């Protein structure tokens, strides 16, 4: 940002930039729960080959993965908006 062509003023004052950063943070936050559950399920499956995760946990985990995907899809959209000068 500081060494780019547009300088920090362009980014720090652009609300679309902050939306892009918020989407990036959301991706990271939404990935915590599924990652922890996948690790837990993998360990449980290694200890017991007949292990099946609880259906309600699977549904909740899928929901977080979908939210993560939506937030991830917003990042390039916000980048394209910035490239076109939206938010200035």
Please give the structural blueprint.
Layout (H helix, E strand, L loop, with lengths): L6 H6 L2 H33 L7 H29 L5
Helix pairs in contact: 2-3
Structural class: mainly alpha
Subunit arrangement of the protein: single chain
Work out the number of β strands. 0
Uncertain ranges: none
Give the termini separation: 16 Å
Proportion of helical residues: over 70%
Count the DSSP helices: 3
Strand count, sense and barrel status of the largest sheet are: none
SSE succession? HHH
**Basic shape:** elongated
pLDDT average, as an integer?
94
β-strand percent reads under 5%
Cα-atom radius of gyration: 19 Å
Describe the structure.
This protein has 88 residues and is mainly α. Helices cover 77% and strands 0% of the residues. It is elongated and about 55 Å long. The model has no long low-confidence stretch (mean pLDDT 94).
Task: Fill in the keyword field for this structure.
elongated, 3 helices, 88 residues, mainly alpha, single chain
Short description:
Helix content is 77%, strand content 0%. The protein has helices at residues 7-12, 15-47, 55-83.
